[in-house]
Specification:
- The protein has 23 helices and two strands.
- By secondary structure, the protein is mainly α.
- The chain folds into two domains: 168 residues, no CATH class; 302 residues, MetI-like (MetI-like fold, Orthogonal Bundle), CATH 1.10.3720.10.
- A two-stranded parallel sheet has the order 1-2.
- About 1% of the residues have low confidence.
């Protein structure tokens, strides 16, 4: 009779092809996916039913409504602004186009919560705008009505002017790469510019636009600082309150799971919009012929590109600089140095570990060439789509249990209580950052590693080099620039990250991001400007490199 269970030889055959490198990559991928799995697992543990029933009957409908409204407004806004600016800079020539090509990505350096603080100070009753209006027209309080920026529509505007570069970058690339020969063919058929845009260029760029909108919506759903400061109740604010105000980790995990469902739905919708369509550029023309705009058309193009740049970067940066130089943080000296040190320590440590793990994962996939290794990398890649609050809750639940177990074991062995070894320091916080931002480093390293021909690996093996020696002596020197870029991207993301830092930071451990949020929440906006300006300055570093690359590719 034949046994239904696999024989030991079958297991040996299965694991024979798993090198130590692949096994290590498997462990790394499992750890990166643990926070999300933890959130889902806690849905089945039950919990305080009164807390969940209270949330479901009172605030949950508001969370859903506000989240959907944010997604609808931001998605529509970033699509309009991003596509319009991308189309103008890619397909037309007008005064200032070469500057706008790279400058339009600069708003990515300004976190949405920093933008919210700046515009609140700028547009409030005692701010410069309303003060100028009262002095100019002789108005008094009550003589006029001024729109309140701290509302849901105000939050939508903040997200649009910060996140439209996602759509701009991807749509512009699509217009440049796919529209040249096709537009020439359309013109020979007598199709005008507007009709060609809607019938040729826009459909060709649809997958890129959908991807950019999806990225912007993921960032919107992950935000905490903006919606909390504007008093717009969403899932991120609900998760924070359920954990810290109600003290119910199960209810917090349930809210996190619903938010995760929103994010996964976005990913699925983005994939479905692509369908099976494939778009290939069969023309050798790198750039479509740019039409020269003159007169009113040129002025309209300049204003279209100038408006989001001014509102998304120039004005906020100028206001931050004015506040920082005029008033600034009263504790700028020693206190600011401590905050900067904490931020740079977290960002630098996370970036270094992320680059090492990304090299490990990418190189293991290159060597094994199996679906398992490729699937592991895709699993890690999902981490960037998960909001920071979800990652924080998913990390705190298992790590806190591990911390308590370790403390109990230590006390039973040595007779003393060591406290919380993981959550009491920065270890758990760095782990949360890695689970969220490892995908950024991995994608950068994978893209560069794919450009190295396999013939180099064969040549290295013929010279007697092992896998580790080949990586160290052949690949790493070639990848040096990409590894620096990957580390820089993770560094900036950690510097800007607010939700996970607020939830998981150790006691009396502040960063530039938490300092800016705390001071702004206390209406000390001028004092918050110093930390916020430092975050924006650091965020400019990768954008400067990106802008230079855009300038090189424009010809």
């Amino acid at each position: 009779m034949t046994s239904r269970h696999p024989s030991p030889s079958a297991f040996r055959q299965l694991f024979r092809h798993l090198s130590p490198l692949v096994v290590t990559a498997l462990v790394v991928a499992a750890l990166a996916g643990l926070p999300v799995a933890s959130v889902g697992f806690n849905l089945f543990l039950g919990g305080t039913s009164t807390t969940w029933s209270h949330l479901a009957s009172t605030v949950l409908p508001e969370y859903i409504q506000n989240s959907l409204a944010l997604c609808a407004g931001v998605g529509f806004g970033v699509a309009i602004v991003g596509v319009a600016t991308a189309w103008l800079t890619a397909m037309h020539d007008f005064p200032g186009r070469r500057v706008f090509e790279w400058a339009l990505v600069l708003p990515l350096a300004v976190p949405a919560y920093v933008m919210a603080y700046v515009y609140t100070d700028f547009l409030q009753f005692v701010g410069p705008v309303q003060t100028l209006l009262r002095e100019t027209f002789g108005w008094e309080a009550g003589d006029y009505r001024f729109p309140d920026i701290r509302t849901l529509p105000g939050a939508v505007l903040m997200f649009i002017f910060v996140l439209y570069p996602y759509v701009y970058l991807l749509a512009r690339t699509a217009f440049l790469e796919r529209a040249g020969g096709v537009l020439e063919a359309a013109r020979t058929l007598g199709i005008g510019p507007w009709r060609a845009f809607f019938t040729v260029s826009l459909p060709l760029a649809r997958p890129a636009i959908a991807t950019g909108v999806a990225l912007a919506l993921m960032e919107t759903l992950a935000d905490y600082g903006t919606v909390a400061y504007f008093a717009v109740n969403t899932f991120t604010t609900g998760i924070y309150r359920a954990w810290f105000s109600l003290g119910d980790r199960i209810a917090s995990a349930q809210l996190a799971a619903i938010l995760l469902g929103f994010v996964l739905l976005l990913v699925v919708v983005e994939r479905l919009t692509r369908g099976r369509a494939r778009y290939h550029n069969t023309s050798n023309r790198r750039r479509p012929p740019a039409g020269r705009l003159r007169g009113g058309a040129a002025l309209l193009a300049v204003l279209t590109c100038l408006t989001p740049l001014v509102l998304g970067f120039v004005l906020p940066a100028a206001l931050l600089l004015r506040m920082a130089l005029g008033e600034g943080d009263a504790q700028f000296g020693e206190r600011f140095v401590l905050l900067a040190r904490n931020s740079f320590t977290l960002a630098g440590l996370t970036a270094a570990i992320a680059v090492l793990l990304a090299v490990l994962l990418a190189y293991s996939a290159r060597l094994s060439k199996t679906l398992l290794a490729e699937g592991l990398n895709r699993l890690v890649g999902l981490g960037y789509a998960v909001p920071g609050t979800v990652i924080a809750v998913g990390v705190l639940i298992p790590v806190t249990r591990l911390d308590n177990w370790l403390a109990g074991q230590w006390q039973s062995w040595f007779g003393s209580n060591p406290g919380l070894l993981l959550t009491g320091g920065i270890a758990a916080l760095v782990y949360a950052y890695l689970a969220r931002f490892l995908a950024v480093a991995l994608q950068t390293v994978e893209a560069s590693l794919a450009k190295i021909t396999p013939n180099m690996d064969d040549a290295a093996r013929s010279l007697g080099l092992g896998q580790g020696q080949t990586l160290r002596r052949v690949h790493v020197p070639i990848l040096r620039g990409s590894l620096f870029t990957a580390g820089l991207l993770v560094f900036v993301d950690v510097m800007k990250e607010l939700p996970a830092t607020l939830v998981m930071r150790p006691f009396n451990f502040d960063t530039l991001a938490t300092q800016a949020y705390t001071l702004a929440s206390d209406e000390r906006l001028a004092e918050a400007s110093t930390a916020a300006l430092a975050i924006v300055a650091v965020g400019l570093l990768p954008l400067i490199a990106l802008s230079r690359q855009i300038s090189l590719d424009r010809r």
